[in-house]
Design a protein that fits this description.
- It is globular, with a radius of gyration of 18 Å.
- It contains six helices and eight strands.
- With 196 residues, the protein is of the alpha/beta class.
- Helix 2 packs across helix 4 and helix 3 (101-113) crosses helix 4 (129-147).
- The termini are far apart.
- The strands form two sheets. The protein has a five-stranded parallel beta sheet.
- 27% of the residues are buried.
């Protein structure tokens, strides 16, 4: 496995980010969180471990390990995966992620190349470190789409499944759907009644 520091180029697929032709249609943004016990290797996935220490033999060849992305040990110890401390822990950790723009941007770009799977060891599916990173990356992607003007608002319930099928993401900050490109945006606009 590869230990990656913030100061060096992420090896493997990430180092190719600068060579990606942005004029081409990019694959849909895909990110998920998965507990290590449920990992199923797939050549179309990029696995990133986000635990501060990973037991020897847990990681497979080609997986990435980003210990810099992990919350501080004291913070995790305080949290102790207690549900009553989840909101405060999440808030503190999201604040740390906001200060790690370069690394988070590289992960966001990876999620366009292949399914980005954030691997965690401790916690539950709803309460773990990876889910915080996943939500942060989705918010970053939504912000990029917002800046490109690819939003769909208003009454979208009748076409929600079509929006999701075309790679639309819900941007909670603005209570609107964000589409991945102009083609998908136009497809949804044409399905909606009224002027947009």
């Amino acid at each position: 496995y590869e230990n990656v520091s913030m100061s060096e180029e992420i090896p493997g697929p990430v180092s190719e980010i600068s060579r990606v032709d942005s004029s081409r249609t990019r694959p849909a943004f895909q990110v998920c969180s998965m507990q290590e016990d449920h990992l199923i290797s797939n050549e179309n996935q990029i696995f990133v471990w986000i635990e501060s220490n990973v037991p020897q033999g847990s990681m497979k060849q080609g997986h990435l390990w980003l210990p810099e992305l992990c919350p501080e040990a004291e913070s995790v110890e305080w949290f102790s995966f207690r549900a009553d401390r989840w909101n405060e822990f999440s808030r503190r950790y999201r604040s740390k992620l906001s200060n790690m723009q370069e690394l988070c941007e590289k992960l966001r770009c990876l999620a366009h190349q292949s399914l980005l799977t954030l691997v965690y060891r401790r916690g539950t599916p709803a309460c773990n470190i990876a889910i915080i990173i996943e939500k942060h990356l989705v918010q970053l992607e939504c912000q990029h789409r917002w800046e490109a003007g690819l939003m769909i608002g208003g009454y979208t319930s009748p076409v929600k499944s079509e929006i999701e099928a075309l790679g639309g993401l819900w941007f909670n900050n603005h209570k609107t759907w964000m589409m991945p490109d102009e083609k998908s945006w136009r497809s949804i606009i044409n399905l909606l009644p009224g002027d947009f």
